[in-house]
Amino acid sequence: MKISVEFLGFPMISDVIGKTRLELAIAGNTVKDVIDELVRTYGEKIRNSFYDENGRLDVTIQMMLNGKSLTLSGKDHTPLNEGDTITFMLLLAGG
After folding, report:
1. CA 4, CA 82: separation in Å to the nearest integer?
2. DSSP states of 19-51 as a string?
3. Range of the domain at 44
4. How far apart (Å, rounded) are the C-alpha atoms in residues 69 and 75?
5. Which sign does the torsion angle of CA 86, 24, 35, 21 carry?
6. Domain holding 36: CATH number?
7. In a domain, 95, yes or no
8. pLDDT the model gives residue 59
9. Residue 75 clears pLDDT 70, i.e. is over it
10. How many structural domains comprise the chain?
11. What is the pTM of this model?
12. What is the phi-psi region of residue 44: left when phi exceeds 0, alpha when psi lies from -120 to 50, beta otherwise?
């Protein structure tokens, strides 16, 4: 299945990949499958950018599917369809 993947405000990912948007073919159909494919293709720096030291999806990562925000609970298991766009962003805080 082919999907579009975007990285907004996520320099540690786009620096490794070399761009902020790409088309990706995945064997599965979930957000986790997208992350797994990115890790297989681009290595441990990608894994470390997505997961905390306990192997859980980092809570500072916001995800959008086709322009709509995904809920925090179980968002990495959200099913995807051919042609979807998944956007990964870092939550920013300021003061």
Report:
1. 9
2. SSEEEEE-SSSBHHHHHHHHHHHH-HHHHHHHB
3. 2-90
4. 10
5. negative
6. 3.10.20.30
7. no
8. 82
9. no
10. 1
11. 0.87
12. alpha
